[in-house]
Specification:
Elements (H helix, E strand, L loop, with lengths): L1 H18 L24 H15 L7 H7 L26 H10 L11 H9 L8 H7 L7 H15 L28 E2 L6 E2 L3 H5 L5 H11 L19 H10 L10 H13 L7 H11 L2 H8 L9 H18 L2 H7 L3 H20 L3 H14 L15 H14 L1
Antiparallel strand pairs: 1-2
Amino acid sequence: MVASTRRARRRRIRRMQDDTCGGVPVPDNTPLYDLCPMQHAPRMAFVSLMLREVLAFNRQEATHSRCLHDILECRSLRTHKLQPFLDPDHFTPIRHANRGQQLMLASLQSSDYRLTSEYGLSNMLVRFGTGQGLKTEEFMTSHLHRWFTSYTECLEVFEHARQSNQGCPKKEKIKFSNGQCWGQPCWQLSLDDVKKRTDTTKTPRCFRERFEPMFAASLLKTWKTHLGEAVFDKDLSDVSIQDLPSYETTQKMIEGIGIQGFGSKSITSMQLANFMALVGLCRLPSVETMGSLTWKNGKGALNGLVNLGFDVRNAGERDVIRAFKCVYDYLDHYLSAGDKETLGFGAIFVEHLLCKVIRWSNLLTHANLREQVDKMLADIAAGHDWRGEHYPLPLHVDRLQLQTWHLEVRERT
């Protein structure tokens, strides 16, 4: 039994060393050893470095780190040249006011109809279900500045865009859908023609099959029932928070309507729920709810926790929630009120931030810059005050304090 336990511990340490680019294991009696078995975990110093650059970037202040500034500007970390094929929204941790959110709001609020009205959900599905955002900005501003009340109206708009692209050079074609709006390819969001491996020709997608379910009578009824009499067709400024649906019921409603691309474990369904919460169509999610979604989806945010040094790659729901809450409480405790306002701090922000942690870390690793950044943080932490260096968070983590927060959530779950 003892030998098998030791072998399991060695395997666990090797796995964490691979995930966090090395490190020294801590003794078993170290606070939070079960969540963070490596010496420098959790790597909140890296988060502090990220947020310092993000805050300076959004406030148009002086750059602190050239390579991190390049990430936010979608530049190559080696040549510093702009990479126009990249989407800045894929790299900023700010979710509540990124360019995609602004474009979506402008598109949906371009008419006199309310999001709480009969076709509110349908119009959101049309846009989220085709990956609208920064990469489709031209199409959104020229074609999606209207309110749809039937799938035939959608067919007219999207078919017109497809016809307009025929015969045009690739650079001149208007992009009317984006299967990579969340980063990873998702064919369910793309309206591009399908090319089969055994054929050189492309088969046009059937737009009717995509849009008709979004305007089904059953879906309209589900939307009205979900909002309830206190919210349906009301001005959101007149609706109290208590009358709004919860984030959890909203997420379940989206997953249950049976629309392609919005099923269980779908990033699109979570992003639609996030949008609804941020515009006031449902209540904001709790920390536990977003921690649970991080475990359920098992994607970017979970990888972000692992990258920070939390041993949760194959953990259960409870441990992922504990790790998520550790990050949330650390940020909540140390971020200033002004920083929280700029970042749009909340559970949604923390989930979004964790996705960027792994993305930034991978970019730095591929450019052979990660070890350089980690060394810089260690040198600064050894001889400087973190506030004096304009860091929004301490560069050293108090494990005892984190353990106190962890015990609080453990008792509730």
